[in-house]
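Deliverable D4.2, example record:
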Amino acid sequence: MIDEGYIKFNSQLHQTPPPSEWVVEEVNTWRDRMYALDYIGAYEGDIGYGNISVKSDLLDNEFIVTGSGTGNIPILFADHFTRVSSYSIDDNSVVCEGRIDASSESMTHAAVYACAPEARAVIHIHSRRHWDALLNKIPTTSDSAAYGTPDMAREIKRLFEETNFPEIRVMAMAGHDEGILSYGTSLDDAGGRLLDVLEGRYP
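Output generated by the structure prediction step:
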């Protein structure tokens, strides 16, 4: 059953100007590719899926992520991006800045950045075909951990500690139908690694 698009954390949105245009251009380079492949898009009823975030050396613990419900939008502009300025896994809360709430997967992205200081990009896609093929063959979260929750964030930490996720940098979400996530030291790194694993080129 598809369970997507609903924010499951406490979101505090501060209305501020959108992120700089360079961020939009950088993210859209890969977001456009993922959208064209139908790895980012929308289910029936315009329920969007898939999201991308980037972290700058200048942002410390902050990162910029595509906004909630933007999966169904063909071309993203600055107002479709949000800065996550702080978060708490224990309190299940996210504070963000921009014109739109942060992606419902923001807690998951935050957990990756917390566990991998070298990470500068996270890509989350949906693909039934690849999810079915990769589930439990690459690092896989528990089927009891729903997307966007503290449980999923803690599962991310477990994968870093107990599996080869830090080496393969791609994982499947057993409790999030069709969900696959990658990370890297740049968007090119995260995107290239994701495509390699989807096509079976992984350890």
